[in-house]
Protein 1
Amino acid sequence: MQFIKKYIESSRAAAAAPEAGKGNARLLMVDPESLFNFSYGMFLLTSKDGARDNGCIINTAAQITVSPLKISVTVNKANLTHHMILKTGEFALSILTESTPFRVFEHFGFQSGKDADKFSGYDDVGRTSNGIRYLPEHSNSVIAGKITEFHDYCTHTLFIADVTEALILSDEPSATLRYYFDNIKPKPRRENGKKDEVL
Ligand SMILES: Cc1cc2nc3c(=O)[nH]c(=O)nc-3n(C[C@H](O)[C@H](O)[C@H](O)COP(=O)(O)O)c2cc1C
């Protein structure tokens, strides 16, 4: 906290007298934890390649423009969902609600479709009009997208899409990344003073 106080003081001083502050040692830091304070939503991003359905949890979906109605999703290149979206050019986005149980995040976010058929025996599903699966029970909205551009960012691809369908499914509040960490993800248990890791 001492560092944070000094950081705020030094940034105030720099703002008050930018010229005088030139050359002064201005405190700089990048705390990755601060990015958790973005009010990201929580989503299931799904795709369909022929008979194969798949999906993964993401927090990086956002609206870009209203007219035309465009959204973006950012997906790790290692994900099967990335491969399927790149190939088919289409996806569905389920906006997950606060009551979504941890098992849904585990099922879609902690295992890859490369190793498991995530929709095999999974009953809570509907299909958007582009034929892609979504989660009616745990979503307050579903949005279908058709890719118009994609941008390469080393480990991830930023996909830009036209919204082809968008429906409100319930009035339940959307889960945020912060809500997920505070209320959905189980806290690590401590046994014998040791932390029991929970992903
Ligand atoms: C809370 C949470 C947020 C996540 N956010 C993203 C994200 O924004 N982008 C991404 O590519 N993966 C994200 N992931 C990781 C993927 O869901 C995970 O790698 C998944 O196993 C990929 O599955 P797939 O290979 O079947 O596509 C997130 C996972 C969790 C649990």
Protein 2
Amino acid sequence: MLARHAREVIDSCRLLAGFSEEAGRTTRTFLSPPMREVHAYLGSWMERSGMSVQVDHAGNLRGSYPASSPGRPRLFIGSHLDTVIDAGAFDGVLGVVLAVALVDLLQHRPLPFSIEVVGFSEEEGVRFGVPFIGSRALIGTLDDEFLGRVDARGRSITDAIRDYGLDPSCILDARVGAEALGYLEFHIEQGPVLDGLAVPLGIVNAIVGLSRLAVTFNGSANHAGTTPMHARRDAVAGAAEWIGAVEALARRTPGLVATVGRLHAQPGAANVIAGVCEASLDVRHASDDARATAVETLRQVAQQIATRRELSVQFETNLEQPSVAMSAAWVAALERAVAAQGLPIHRIDSGAGHDAMILAGRMPVAMLFLRSPGGISHHPDEHVIEGDVAAALGTGLAFLDDLAGTHA
Ligand SMILES: [Zn+2]
């Protein structure tokens, strides 16, 4: 039965990947026309599995599976239905399809809590440059300023909601109340760690915190031919030395990742020594203290390099996002559920943001990662192994039974 459902999950993800804004590749942004076909396909499977289905006014697909008696708490299980541009078939979608299959496997057997499967309308931030529109609606943080953001064609989030036939003035109806028991999300790892260890499933400890800074080295621009090497104040050379130090610090610090992903040199000519070099810095760690220490160290190193090279350096912090811990009790329950499948237990930090991070402000959350073969994600070659999907379904069932025991 698990094997059959696992096959159906994978086939469904492949089929849903065909519902796209672009011919020949998968691109599905917030409430674009193909989202209707996704809602229709999953909505009908939800109904066959005993769920009542609605689309809330933030465009989230929601299927409710009743509890054994009224007034019981509600477990949310879900992920997102939007994609990046030229996406694979599994990022986000897998978590929603897997949740529907999990409820289907209950075969109408009620539990002492209700289940709501949520297919979030938006997580990737592609259309409006801001992510998590769907999950923000569930915690009620979509305000007018946020909803007024516009896409490349000048349509606002509010317009997009109206274009889809929904009512933006009812967006607060999407909010979750005190009935929430917690949120569980299945997601592909989107990295190479589990595959490298040959482990099918990973239990997420925390979603790492993130600091994003703009770092500017200032020197002086001058002629590349006539200025001797000892007389230069080269901003790019200073930045380059510092970037080497960024990589070295991250390589020797467990759990730390640090990236300089964007560089801009001015004036930016081949025959001119750069007077200014702006660099982005992205630093992530599951421990907020470790992340703060790393950022401080990189500031000091930049200052030392600048002083020695007669440059100046400025730091501007653009984003500080604390790490989000998963519920300790649910992590333990997932460990029992994974062990019951005869699989090794592996705890992992999530280096990427997920809807669970937003919902964590309101309720206990937990995540289970499925290995990404080759570590490939946000790419058409993204895939999953059928046996891993079956193992995730088995883990999900064991987790539901465990939770039923504590909430009987
Ligand atoms: Zn995702």
